[in-house]
Design a protein that fits this description.
Oligomer: single chain
Strand order of the largest sheet: 1-2-3-5-4
Strand content: 15-25%
Distance between the termini: 45 Å
Radius of gyration: 18 Å
Largest sheet: 5 strands, mixed, barrel
Order of helices and strands: EEEHEEHHHHHEHHH
Length: 225
């Protein structure tokens, strides 16, 4: 399994990018949001990847973070959601937007993606809502940066990493759970003050709540009235 590729961008198309890894070109399909965020041909790029294997087809799909890759896998598990639909949802909302919409049961936001009807959007929310907080808690995990801070990009030789095996964080209690929930909310774009206040209120209502429960409760508090 190819879990990550990094190399020079050979060219970019509307729905895929060709990454030159040590002289071998890998075609990686991405959402329009990810394509727009990549550099120009000749620049270095790195993406976490998910390999789809079918009898007559092999396709790589690329994501800038493990959270987005995990959402792709989960979205694909929903009946009626294929790779194209998953990328449409992620391209419209981004990983953070998908996390927020599913955690809050906001199927209208899911429906805003091209080709996603109301029944499919509701099915996505209903089937994945219990998994959203755990995926959100992965938000402090790795990002597929083109190069490490303060370091130049590596030379263009083969960099194909084996499939990473991210596991959902184990439930934490007390201060650890609050810290993880706070990190997840700030990764979603909430200010530290907003996130801290919501997590504190959620923890006050349920002192023994784990990370997932705190995230879910805090998101409900932060949702627009």
């Amino acid at each position: 399994m190819i879990g990550r590729v990094s190399g020079r961008i050979a060219y970019k198309a509307d729905d895929h990018v060709l990454i030159d890894v040590g002289g071998i070109g890998y075609v990686v399909y991405c959402s329009d949001r990810v394509i727009a965020g990549l550099g120009v041909p000749g620049e270095w790029a790195a993406l976490f990847t998910d390999l789809m294997v079918r009898e007559d087809l092999l396709q790589l799909f690329g994501f800038p973070t493990l959270v987005e890759k995990e959402w792709h896998r989960l979205l694909m598990s929903v009946q009626g959601v294929g790779a194209k639909a998953s990328l449409a949802i992620l391209g419209t909302l981004g990983a953070e937007g998908v996390s927020r919409a599913i955690a809050l049961g906001d199927w209208n936001s899911i429906k805003a993606a091209k080709g996603i009807g109301p029944k499919t959007a509701q099915r996505v929310v209903n089937e994945l809502k219990d998994k959203a907080p755990t995926v959100m808690a992965m938000g402090a995990g790795p990002v597929a940066a083109a190069s490490a801070p303060g370091m130049s990009a590596p030379e263009p030789d083969a960099v194909i990493d084996a499939e990473p095996a991210p596991s959902a964080p184990a439930p934490a209690q007390g201060g650890a759970a609050q810290s993880e929930a706070l990190s997840a909310l700030t990764n979603l774009g909430y200010s530290p003050g907003e996130a801290a206040g919501a997590v504190a209120r959620a923890a006050g209502d349920a002192p023994e709540a784990d990370t997932a429960a705190l995230i879910r409760a805090a998101l409900k508090m932060l949702a627009p009235a």
